[in-house]
Amino acid sequence: MTTPPICDYEGSDYQTSFWDKGGREYEDRTEAIALKRLLPPPALVPRTAGHGARESGHLLLELGAGAGRNTPRYTGFERIVLLDYSRTQLEQAQKRLGKSDKYIYVAADVYRLPFIDELFDAATMIRTLHHMADAPKALEQVKNVLGAGGVFILEFANKLNLKAILRYLLGRQTWSPFTLESIEFAKLNFDFHPKAVRNWLKALDFTIEKTLTLSHFRVGLLKRIVPTGILVFLDSLFQWTGEWWQFSPSVFVRAKKVERDASRIPPNEQGNILSYFKCPDCGHAPLTDKTNYLECSNCMKKWQLKDGIYDFRAPIEK
Ligand SMILES: [Zn+2]
User: Fold this and answer.
1) Which of 45, 178, 180, 213 stands 20 to 30 A from 198 (CA)?
2) CA of residue 300 to ligand 1 center, whole Å
3) What order do you get walking across the sheet with 146-157 strand by strand?
4) Cα 3 to averaged position of ligand 1 atoms, centre (Å)
5) Is the pTM of this model over 0.85?
6) Is 38 in the same domain as 124?
7) Which pLDDT tens digit goes with each residue over 20-41?
8) Cα 116 to ligand 1 centroid, rounded to whole Å
9) Are both 177 and 305 inside the same structural domain?
């Protein structure tokens, strides 16, 4: 099966070099504020159709979880599945968050998600669409695993940002920020037009409930001379203008999967982790637990489980 190329953070010190020591405190804090504004309050996390009767629930899928920087911000969810293509990123997340039933670590390709349909109550994808060569295809996968009425919080890098507009108008940039196609400004790094993202979401039966713009003051000079707390406060005010226009480098949207058919067959009890998975190659579910790996009884492929991380990137060699 061929899928689009993947931006792999395997072995990367991204968390340390970009976030911890990279002068990104401003960006990190504005994201924390946006997530608080977009996440449903704990009591209102929708129990999607068919999930009502179960004891536990509130299952969140975090796509592109990396080293788990945002994970502790997803309060109100009983269980979080952290998905990343890089196993070493997940190992860092595991160190940060610990091994418990609350967090499930899954190394997988976003174009071949190893989950049964309509499993999750909510999903987040922050600073991840940025690396998707085929963004609509990735979004379609998210739609498939999200239950009806489920909430999807998506962040994307905005090509229609003020800096790109100025550069273009001054003739210092060849590509137009005003057209709908994505721009790959570095290998496997894409910026998107807000309208293009809205169109993709609508085509997939999502309704957009809220839009916030972020990082209005992502300018090196400002970040050096103005105290971070002040920039964060100003940005938190400007975030609301995202409802009317989006000219900031980063945009957050809360989308909701349209509820269509309440008579769908509810997924299994969410308490049983094994019941979440399907074979990413042939789609068969459930997989059989063989202690150190999960086996597909249809195509006989084996998927590794090692040190608490499920690995669905490639099957174990026979
Ligand atoms: Zn299979």
Assistant:
1) 45
2) 6
3) 206-214, 250-257, 146-157, 120-125, 59-63, 79-84, 103-107, 309-311, 302-306, 293-295, 288-289
4) 17
5) yes
6) yes
7) 777 788 889 999 999 999 987 6
8) 13
9) no
